[in-house]
Amino acid sequence: MTPHNHIHPSSIIDPGAVIGKDTRVWHFSHVMPGARIGRDCVLGDYVFIGRNVVIGDGCRIQNHASVFEGVTLEKNVFVGPGVMFTNVKRPRADQRQGYVQTIVKAGATIGAGAVIVCGVTIGEKAMVGAGAVVTRNVRPGATVTGVAAEPITNIDPMWET
Q1: Which pTM does this prediction carry?
Q2: Least buried of 78, 113, 129, 142, by fewest C-beta within 10 Å?
Q3: What is the rounded CA–CA span in Å between residue 67 and residue 85?
Q4: What does the pLDDT profile of the chain (161 residues) look like in tens digits?
């Protein structure tokens, strides 16, 4: 950290996190070890930044967003309030898996409440609408909206009640 940052006293910046010059971290946010946040960024209230996340210069991450390990945001990315990035394809409580990379290219915008399923790339200056569920790559400059969720299989019988 540099003395030119504003880190609200209620926020937690773990040892090993790097925060660039002129970056502001607001109330009750948490930045995990190994995270690298660029210069002139803003992290709103209750933002979570996971281990080893990379955030480029000039990014804006709004309140209640969660950016988990495996995510890279290039410069000047806007992440709206309540955005959720996932990082495991098939999560189970009793199973540890490797994290899947997700990349958001420079200048992209992600609207409020969107869910970004791991393993995608969101292209430069693309726009993800509020509440969208992104399950595939988004071309540079494209605008995507809507919910992609649809039934693809029955649940494994051992998990049925």
Answers
A1: 0.90
A2: 142
A3: 5
A4: 445 789 999 999 999 999 999 999 999 999 999 999 999 999 999 999 999 999 999 999 999 999 999 999 999 999 999 999 999 988 888 877 789 999 999 999 999 999 999 999 999 999 999 999 999 999 999 999 989 855 544 455 544 44
Q: Measuring CA to CA, which residue among 86, 90, 91, 113 is closest to residue 102?
A: 86
Q: How does DSSP classify residue 62?
A: -
- Which residues have CB under 8 Å from 97's CB, separation 6+? 88, 89, 90, 91
Domains of the chain: 1-161 (2.160.10.10)
Neighbours of 17 (CB within 10 A): 21
Q: How far apart are alpha carbons 56 and 58 in whole angstroms?
A: 7
8 Å CB contact between 23 and 29 = no
> Which phi and psi (to 5°) does residue 158 adopt?
-70, -15
